[in-house]
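1st attempt posting a full record on here, be nice pls
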Amino acid sequence: MTMPDYHIDVLVQGFPGRAVCHGGLGWSTVTLIRGGGRMALLDVGAFGVRRELAGQLARLGVAPLDVTDVVLTHAHYDHAVNFTLFPQATVWIGEAELAWAAAQPPGFNPLPELYVRELRASPRVRLLRDGDECLPGLRAVGAAGHTPGHLVFLLEGAGASPVLFTGDAAKNRAELIGMRVDASLDHAASRESLARIWALWRAVPGTLLVPGHDLSMRLDAHGRPQYVGERRAAIAAWFGETVAEQTMIDLCGAPAAGLFRPLVS
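the predicted structure (as tokens):
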């Protein structure tokens, strides 16, 4: 089978951080894959990203009805809920992931109960196992730990370097280098998944890694992860007395003193 040439656009740049006082940010990576007659989104973000996602798609001339496939690394709200915005798309998710998510009772966790129910019932959903392809050249790879059925995806197309989408099996550069993830339901499984990701990343020089909550990366000549592109993240806040007074807070600058806590086992 001839593999198509794919064009990759990171529409929403993931952010490697969490809110200190207001719960999860949910700022995850959303990527558009175009080629071979397919228009696919790999992860689709949380509610808060909808306006930005719509703008980025429009900038590329892509309408919601043009999206042929939505590929989900896992069922957490910040990666999965916006599948409903693409009514013509086939939705791909791990078989083990959806079975696990559907079996969880409503609770204070990142699973969006009603959206998981819709995924379970929708005729547009297709289930994946380790090694399955959803697009020509886009292969699912089991990477349990963060969630039991989490998948990463390796894209290998003609005439291009491979692209490895790690979702939250490797959320950021710190997790890749430190070989320890911040949030996992099974830390032993997460370490095995990180080792698997590293093996895939090192297999072909020039492979681009797109993590769930960080900038894309390639390995340098010494095998160290180096960012591709420039981080963009800021908050505009109203601390004054009129809406015209905005304070811009850069989230890419120096850390503020006294705000850090050690990672507790």
